[in-house]
């Protein structure tokens, strides 16, 4: 009871009636806050409505920093918008739609189809050796006899790349370079079963906050949690993919 009374006293100490003259002056200013709604987005479970998890995820991704807003229409007393998380300084970082992120983590659904209007940056293709030239190579991944991947033995860049990747990404905090909404074709860095980091490319969305990637320097594929992805830094993006695919037609 004492706590409630103390709280009430604090509120009263900070409340003041607005004088009529001031009220008139303030009436000339429009409201500074605009009611908004994420366009075409509905709860993942329509019968239960918006979950606390959806609200928490929305608050987490939006945070207190400024976001890019795209007005997409108006519905009664709400402005229909999409919000995009502002990119970081590096050129390989792509702004992502908050709507698409909430759909990807399965706390929301799209009410109607949405066309994705962005194209992620992709790796440079591998450099193929000249025809009829003899080279030393290692077969690093086999799907079958008509589809396997090789690395050239004399290519020391792969060893240096791997060492630098581990040094860089093991030093990151959990949220640093986090991927929120992976796009098909997106270049990234992914953690493999051996707990090491490798360059990868997003190739599928199997659901359940999972993502399918192909490790571009080895050729193998893996389905893993989106929490095992990180954005790729410029210094690791410039090198072409290290493996060459060999397919017998």
Write the layout of secondary structure elements.
Layout: H1 2-14, H2 20-26, E1 36-38, E2 41-43, H3 52-62, E3 68-75, E4 78-85, E5 96-97, H4 98-104, E6 108-110, E7 137-144, E8 147-152, H5 157-170, E9 187-191, E10 197-207, E11 210-215, E12 221-225, E13 229-230, H6 234-237, E14 244-246
Parallel strand pairs: 1-4
Antiparallel strand pairs: 2-6, 3-4, 4-5, 7-8, 8-14, 9-10, 9-13, 10-11, 11-12
Features:
249 residues, 4-stranded mixed sheet, SNase_OB-fold_sf
Number of helices: 6
What is the helix/strand order? Answer: HHEEHEEEHEEEHEEEEEHE
Oligomer, anyone? single chain
- Main sheet, how many strands, which sense, barrel? 5 strands, antiparallel
What low-confidence regions span 5 or more consecutive residues with pLDDT below 50? none
Give helix % range: 10-25%
Task: Give the radius of gyration.
Answer: 25 Å
DSSP, total strands: 14
Order of the strands making up the biggest sheet: 12-11-10-9-13
Provide the residue-averaged pLDDT: 79
What does the overall shape look like? elongated
Share of residues in strands: 25-35%
- Structural class computed from helices and strand pairing: alpha+beta
Distance between the termini: 82 Å
Descriptive overview:
This protein has helices spanning 2-14, 20-26, 52-62, 98-104, 157-170, 234-237, and strands at 36-38, 41-43, 68-75, 78-85, 96-97, 108-110, 137-144, 147-152, 187-191, 197-207, 210-215, 221-225, 229-230, 244-246. The protein is an alpha+beta fold and 249 residues long. Strands 12-11-10-9-13 form a five-stranded antiparallel sheet. Strands 1, 3, 4 and 5 form a four-stranded mixed sheet that branches. A three-stranded antiparallel sheet has the order 7-8-14, with no helix packed on it. The relative contact order is 0.13.
């Amino acid at each position: 009871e004492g706590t409630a009374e103390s709280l009430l006293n604090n509120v009263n100490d900070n409340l003041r009636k607005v004088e009529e003259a001031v009220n008139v002056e303030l009436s000339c200013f429009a409201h500074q806050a605009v009611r908004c709604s994420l366009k075409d987005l509905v709860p993942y479970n329509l019968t239960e409505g918006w979950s606390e998890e959806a609200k928490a995820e929305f608050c987490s991704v939006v945070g207190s920093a400024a976001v890019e807003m795209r007005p997409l229409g108006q519905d009664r007393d709400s402005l229909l918008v999409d919000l995009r998380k502002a990119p970081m300084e590096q050129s390989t970082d792509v702004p992502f739609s908050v709507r698409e992120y909430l759909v990807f983590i399965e706390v929301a659904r799209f009410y109607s189809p949405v066309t994705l209007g962005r194209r992620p940056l992709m790796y440079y293709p591998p450099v193929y050796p000249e025809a009829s030239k003899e080279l030393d190579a290692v077969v690093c991944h086999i799907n079958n006899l008509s589809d396997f991947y090789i690395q050239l033995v004399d290519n020391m860049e792969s060893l240096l790349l791997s060492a630098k990747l581990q040094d860089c990404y093991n030093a990151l905090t959990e949220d640093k370079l986090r991927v929120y909404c992976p796009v098909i074709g997106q270049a990234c860095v992914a953690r493999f079963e051996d707990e090491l980091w490798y360059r990868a490319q997003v190739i599928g969305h199997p659901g359940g906050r999972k993502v399918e990637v192909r490790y571009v320097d080895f050729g193998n594929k893996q389905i893993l949690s989106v929490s095992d992805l990180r954005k790729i830094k410029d210094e690791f993006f410039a090198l072409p993919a290290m493996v060459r695919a060999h397919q017998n037609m």
